[in-house]
Predict the structure.
Amino acid sequence: MTNKFDAPKLNLTKSMAEYARGKNCTPGGVLGIRRPYNFVEGEYPIYFEKGQGGKVTDIDGNEYLDYLCAYGPIIIGYREKEIDEAAIAQIRDKGFCFSLTQKIQNDLSERLRGLIKCAEMSVFMKTGSDATTLATRVARGYTGRSKIIRCGYHGWHDWCVEVKGGVLPKTYEDTLEFHYNHLEELEDLLKKYPDDVAGIIMTPIGHPTAKQVEYPKPGFLEGVRALADKYGVVLIFDEIRSGFRVNIGGAQTLFNVTPDLSTFGKALANGYPIGAVVGKAQFMKKIEKEVFVSSTFFPNSIEYAAALATLNFLEKNNVIENIKAKGEKFNAELVKILAKHPNTITTASPVPQMPYVIFEKTEDKTYKAKRNDFYTQLIRRKVFLQPYHHGYICYRHSEEDLQYTLKCIDEALSYIDETKY
């Protein structure tokens, strides 16, 4: 029987042809989290052509409302003129790659110092993985200890990568793990290794893979801070995703808990590649001589110019408040929609800036099929979200965009209601 809520399948002819070509050029065609099996294979495009504002267009000409936002960097919108012009001016008027550093690095560092609680000093690099790895190196250099306790995703480098192929066990044997909002697990690890732990690195807002986003329980972050102080451990907040999105000063400002070091990236430059380690001077000064970091391209200034322009735009246009207000309204309506479909156990993200509909595990195992069908129906309606990763609301998402998305979510859930599993 035909399901009346079934949307027409997209034309992805060019995407699939390019994917076949790509597999002869790059292992797997595309890498990492952008691989087709991280979406719904055969339903999602594989190659984008362009983006503008809150929308993207694939190489077949299908235009989507994009809530993945390049996995987080696009906080304002694609091809944002003010940001791009700042980058272009830096290239055209001054250049960006030199044997010595340009003073714009100091301009950005001072700007961050005025926004982020712990940011007495900064070091800039290109990616979040660069930043988290340097932060753990600083923790080890400062304490002279070996073990790192982690909570959350911190990148693809050896010490924290989830997939262990090609990674020597000794590179991660000193990395321990606890779960978000489980303070007792952290305390047990610190009691077991009281003199061996150099640092705790954690996401102040929980965003585990394929699970719902979490706010900290009352007292959780404060408890982590207290344990770090008790055991003489360097506390690192990984704010790669939360930075400049939940608050201009990051989650540490939102929750009023100050770490020793923090890592930032993604939304810092609205898509330009930059990562940062910021922190209190007593820790950061270890990088002067005792902890080494270097790269030919870390001092390149295009990203610094884009970051300064992004921060100016965020403050001038009250972007964080705008995104939060949109997200809160979206979430309130989403909760009502989910309640209309009680036969499917779905939950909405409590973090308004990071929307996510997940399908809770069920004994009959149908949640996987329902999740696939739900995201299939969304993408067919030109709403781009990811089944295993939370989304983002950006500044250029309009009220009309958000209302259309809610309508599509309702229809996708209605499709599930009409389907036998």
In short: The CA atoms of residues 12 and 60 lie 6 Å apart. The chain has a mean pLDDT of 97.
